[in-house]
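Below is how a single chain appears once it has passed through the pipeline. First comes the sequence as given, then the structure the pipeline wrote out for it. We keep one example in the README because the format questions we get most often are answered faster by looking than by reading.
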Amino acid sequence: MIDIDGSYLEGGGQILRTAAGLSAVTRKPCRVSNIRKGRPNPGLKPQHLKGIEAVAKLCNGTLKGAKIGSQSVEFHPGKIRPGTYIIDVGTAGSVTLVLQALLIPVIHSGEGITLDITGGTHVIWSPTTGYFRHIFCEFMRMMGIEVASETMRYGYYPKGGGRVRVTVKTNKGLKPLDLQERKGSPIIEAWSNAASMLKDRKVAERQTEAAGRLIQIDRTNAKYVDSASPGSSITLSASFRNCFLGANAIGERGKPAEKVGEEAASELKRAIDSGACLDPHMADQILPYLAMAGGESRASVSEMTKHCKTNMWLIEKFLPVKFVVKGNIIFLKQTASQ
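Resulting structure:
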């Protein structure tokens, strides 16, 4: 049993998601206590519960203490099973945060698995499905894993109701990466979307135009979609020859479309100006996969966030690896078997 203090450093739901995923990979049971202890409403929220329940279903595992508001959960994993899994997060709970927990065991399984998830596809405090597709999936491809993602329906706050289908083919296995220095000049692309009820206000176009005033965009995509709630978002990517940087921003009531575009563009510009290969969000998301790949990996990051430091601390509890940080570069080394 691996005991984990859920209040460590970042102290949020990420600890639970990563722990559940790595527990399923290693077949080591874990207990997470003090879940989200420092948050205004500590304990499990619906999207956290749905995420770990989905991991348990994927590997035929069992959960103890898994209920809304619980601050301690025990997880006993079983064997990962291939197939198609249908998951409803409920309302606007983030589908990409659920994917963060599920993809760790799915990619490691060596079997083809399809995930069909309903919930919030473009909501605050989480990556959009566009970021997942154009940044995360591209890095998985570089590591030898084919991850296909399609947003079937867009789900904004508060009703959600969006749907994403993700298919994973894990035939080649994971391979380490050397991401110390970027290669080539970037191609910058923007994907702007808004609910069809906002078409008359040209919200999607205004987001893209505002972003373009701060950063040169080579390709733009603006569209209107059917959704249960009014909402909007923009996702930006900068594609280099050997890496991808991304940023997204979400529209909210009373927030001008121009501000949404400016937020995403400012974030991407900071990542580009840093000279690093990983933006702040991908920096922590890619770590479990680099750790599972074996060998030695290294990556420069635009910002060493608490999320990133927390994931390094947590991964070392499950896998025989050691992270060493020198400046803005993370070095991953294999250690003796645990």
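The first strand starts at residue 2 and ends at 5.

See the next section for the split statistics.
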